Known about the structure:
Elements: H1 5-12, H2 19-31, E1 38-41, H3 50-57, E2 66-70, H4 79-84, H5 101-104, E3 109-113, H6 120-132, E4 134-136, E5 143-145, E6 149-154, H7 158-163, H8 169-175, E7 178-181, H9 189-207, E8 213-214, H10 216-224, H11 230-244, E9 249-250, H12 252-256, H13 262-265, H14 280-309, H15 315-320, H16 341-344, H17 351-365, H18 370-377, H19 381-390
Parallel strand pairs: 1-6, 1-7, 2-3, 3-6, 8-9
Antiparallel strand pairs: 4-5
Helix pairs in contact: 2-3, 6-8, 9-10, 9-11, 17-18, 18-19
Amino acid sequence: MKIDLQQIKQRFGIIGNSVGLNRAIDVALQVAPTDLSVLITGESGVGKEFFPQIIHQNSARKHGQYIAVNCGAIPEGTIDSELFGHEKGSFTGALADRKGYFEVADGGTIFLDEAGELPLPTQARLLRVLETGEFIKVGSSKVQKTNVRIVAATNVNLVEAVKNGKFREDLYYRLNTVPIQIPPLRERSEDIFLLFRKFATDCAEKYRMPAVRLDDDARQLLVSYRWPGNIRELKNVTERISVIEEKREITADILRQYLPNLNVEKYPVLVKPENEQKSFANEREILYQILFDMRKDVNDLKKLVHDIMNGNVPLDMVKEGSYPHTIHPITTIQTPVVQDAETIEEETKSLEDVEKDMIKKALERHGGKRKNAAADLKISERTLYRKIKEYNLE
């Protein structure tokens, strides 16, 4: 018997009627009775976490364990122990045997959220589970069997990750047996106001206040905004307006104050070819390196001026470009204003120092909360955890 989409939406609290959303739910329901692996993709904040539950609850495994694992939040050194368990004494702190998720969830479903953040050694272990249903605990030589359905989700472009050597190609195809793509909120314009109204009503009931309403201009602005943070951003904006604004009738001018990226988001987006796209992290590192090189050039120029004024280098060498600190061959040198040598000699911050400062400031801004700091820095919690240990910021 075909399950009604509206019943599924009500059961799991899904709001919307867009074609892309309905298609994703329909695919989840069709694949649920099977044991095929499913890969759910979509931007951060689109609601990927609902679909593994839909699949599990409509499968023959619904009475078994359902375990959701945030792969990006588990430190690289402990993720194998979390997933596959460990033997007593297998590493420092292993005071007793421990069952991993794959042993506990035998006969059930495991949801691997942020699967693109899995380290390569863990990917090899996961591939073995998918192919043979076998795993080995950390510190053990005994092979164990498990019967687990795996549903994975990621907001990372795994095709690019495979090309860059950060994700195993064979694992990608094993996980991607049935792909489900969740559309971003900007492609579900007919659902945006429905979601706003739901969040406003929930907030009003929770805090015992009248629900906020949008006038026509505000409603048009709400729908035209691109919502880079998707449903999560829309919910946050709705709750902020509900709590902060005294007026319950929200105009476009009021709404605009809560959309800080409005001016940026309204410009056309120029998309590079796929093979030219770089990750945000790589772009940030390149920017750091450019700033680092610029600062070094300025310091070299100051050193050159200082040496010239003190008679430490002939002017002819500078004109020919043969002096080591020369940035470019030059023909004319203006008489500079020379400061004390101590002022001229500046310490150049290394790329690591800049990164360390950014991490420290992000942690301070969020009161030491690593999850919020990682989101602010646009990196995973595991990467932040590793950087904190690397820079002794505990």
